[in-house]
Amino acid sequence: MSDPHPPLRSYGRIRSRTIKPRQAALMDTLLPTLRLPAQPFEPRTLSPGSAEIWLEIGFGGGEHLAAQAQRRPDVLFLGAEPFQNGVASALRHIDEAELANVRLHDGDARDLLARLPDASLERVFVLFPDPWPKARHHKRRLVQADSARELARVLKPGGRLRFASDWADYVDWTLERLLATPGLAWSAARADDWRRAPADHVTTRYEEKRLGDCAPVFLDFVRA
Ligand SMILES: C[S@@+](CC[C@H](N)C(=O)[O-])C[C@H]1O[C@@H](n2cnc3c(N)ncnc32)[C@H](O)[C@@H]1O
């Protein structure tokens, strides 16, 4: 049965320019082999040999996802992104780097979160989400009290959540909500902890554009 109150759309277009033929072919051939189950599932069963399971929400063109997956072949990476051109681009990165440790949800991450059991992930990344800067659009922001609770639910004790944005108001908004979420604790001890990119960060395509109104801010939270 469909949800009578689906969440508001937190993303813009799901398709822009025509997808290049090679990427379109990967959408037909590679994507079906990587697509995550459409029902509740235990992610560990997808790759019993993986040491950890990480999730990137809104991976855009997949540069961060692919680079992290290449660095950590022992980790199973889940990625969620509804923007078809982004999914196609990520497939190209996965194909070129011959990554065997990535699985994708080509849709709304909130649907994927709802299918995941409690305490099933070691890390979650939400990097440079759509800022929705106008006050009347704030309700479209991906980070809301309920999505923050969902993130806390799926993280294992000791698991980590990273949020990054270059929109000052969205950083404040997120900080307020994550700090109010039971089970999440901000790991920052000094200003450099949020002002400087963490050592394991991979610069994203959107981050490089510097479209926001402040320097990138990184909020790392730990699940108690
Ligand atoms: C501003 S872009 C940033 C992309 C990428 N993280 C980067 O930094 O280059 C935000 C991305 O989040 C995706 N997004 C927005 N809402 C989403 C949702 N509910 N589930 C998954 N992805 C979402 C958008 O489609 C878009 O690709």
Can you describe this structure in just a few lines?
This protein has 224 residues and is of the alpha/beta class. Helices cover 33% and strands 20% of the residues.
How would you portray this structure in words?
It is a single chain. With 224 residues, the chain is of the alpha/beta class. The protein contains nine helices and seven strands; from the N terminus they run ααβαβαβαβαβαβααβ. The chain has a seven-stranded mixed beta sheet, with helices on both faces. The structure holds S-adenosylmethionine. S-adenosylmethionine binds at residues 10-11, 57-60, 80-83, 86, 108-110, 127-130, 142, 204-207. S-adenosylmethionine (SAM) binds next to α5 and α9.
List the helices and strands and how they pair.
Layout (H helix, E strand, L loop, with lengths): L20 H9 L1 H4 L17 E6 L5 H9 L3 E6 L3 H13 L5 E4 L3 H7 L5 E7 L17 H10 E11 L2 H12 L4 E3 L5 H4 L9 H5 L7 E7 L1
Parallel strand pairs: 1-2, 1-4, 2-3, 4-5
Antiparallel strand pairs: 5-7, 6-7
Helix pairs in contact: 1-4
The structure holds S-adenosylmethionine.
S-adenosylmethionine binds next to helix 5 and helix 9.
